[in-house]
Each structure stands twice: as structure tokens, then as C-alpha cells.
Design brief:
This protein is of the alpha/beta class. The chain has eight helices and eight strands, in the order βαββαββαβααβαβαα.
Length: about 200
């Protein structure tokens, strides 16, 4: 009898800080694509982002750990924050394929990222090593994503799953801004994360 491959979702991001939007998308991906597990991977030194506002990787890792505590389907890896130099998604997927043989990987990303993925380092290797799961926000967004997915299939033979529409108006940028202004972020991120932010005086200035 043929062994069934494990299905693992990869939820990457700076998580600066993690919020309920991240968690909802991860859970939507898990249920929609029937995944066995979601691994959250806080980014290391991204070559595509301004790192001036990104706090230490260890603190971001600890906040994600707090946010996903109690969910047996969610786990976390520090592989990117431990990596020296810039971190690249294609390298992460290659490493994961070595750690987890006989596994199908599903890389979860936001709608905006699908439209720029061709500019990512070795985009072809990314799309060869995983299925992309994309979060859509509304019907128009989903139509645009479907068109883009068809284009990427023709160019890269990419396999892309588009999640049902869910409007999530949350961002780490907004959370950081509210904290700087001494405003409440309750219900935007788990209380355990808020307590950690307060204890460590993060995002104060």
C-alpha cells in the first residue's frame, strides 16, 4: 500500500508583531487544503524589506510561539532567523524538503505577494518545490488572483490554491503605530503577545 504524503503548510513572515490576521489565514489554509500541520517561520534578514523597524528575530519568534500555543496543528521554526546573511524562500523550501522527505509543502502568502513573486530570488525553484496558497480579500481580488495564477501556471507550471474571500483589516504596521501612540491593541493580537510587548517595552518609539 502506498504511503500517503504528509501535507505541511508554511506560514512565513516578519510577524512584527504577529496578529489575528496571520492566525486566521493559517487556519483557513489548513482547513481549506486539508493540511496536517502549519509551520510558522519568522523571517530572518529579508532582502526585500526595510529592516529598520523590524525587531530582533528572537523576540518575534517568542511572540509567535505565544500566539500559537495550545494549537497542536501549529508549530514554529527558527531556521530563517538563525541563517546568516539574507534569507531566501527558495533556500527555506530546499531545506524543508531535506528535513521532511515524502512531504508536500504548501507556501501561504498574501495576495500582494503573488503579483510580485516572479521578482523573488529563484522564483522558479519556489514554485517547483511547493503549492502556493493565496489569501483573497474580496470577489474582485479573487478574479485578479485567478488570472495571475493562470499566468504563473503557463510560465512556471505553478500549482496555486486561492482561499475563499475573507476581509481582514489588520496589519502589524497599524499595531506598532497604536502602541507608539499608547492606544489599545486588544483583539488585534492575542493577549499573551500584548503582555510580551508590554513586558519588553517593544515598539515604544
Amino acid at each position: 500500500m502506498e504511503n500517503k504524503k504528509k501535507k505541511i503548510g508554511i506560514m512565513g513572515g516578519t510577524f512584527n508583531p504577529i496578529h489575528y490576521g496571520h492566525l486566521l489565514v493559517a487556519e483557513d489554509a489548513r482547513t481549506y487544503c486539508n493540511l496536517d500541520e502549519i509551520i510558522f517561520i519568522p523571517s530572518g534578514n529579508s532582502y526585500m524589506k526595510d529592516t529598520s523597524e523590524i525587531i530582533d528575530g528572537k523576540k518575534r519568534y517568542e511572540m509567535v510561539s505565544l500566539a500559537i500555543a495550545g494549537n497542536t496543528a501549529f508549530s514554529i521554526s527558527d531556521m530563517e532567523i538563525k541563517r546568516n546573511g539574507h534569507t531566501y524562500t527558495y533556500e527555506t523550501l530546499e531545506e524543508l524538503n531535506k528535513i521532511y522527505p515524502d512531504t508536500d509543502f504548501y507556501f501561504i502568502l498574501g495576495a500582494d505577494n503573488l503579483f510580485t513573486i516572479e521578482k523573488w530570488k529563484y522564483a522558479d525553484k519556489i514554485m517547483q518545490n511547493c503549492t502556493l496558497i493565496v489569501a483573497s480579500r474580496d470577489e474582485k481580488d479573487k478574479q485578479d488572483l485567478t488570472q495571475k495564477a493562470n499566468s504563473l501556471f503557463k510560465s512556471f507550471h505553478a500549482t496555486i490554491e486561492i482561499l475563499p474571500e475573507r476581509k481582514i483589516d489588520l496589519s502589524s504596521t497599524e499595531i506598532r503605530k497604536k502602541i507608539r501612540e499608547n492606544k489599545s491593541v486588544i483583539y488585534m493580537t492575542p493577549q499573551s503577545v500584548i503582555s510580551y510587548i508590554n513586558k519588553n517595552a517593544l515598539y515604544q518609539s
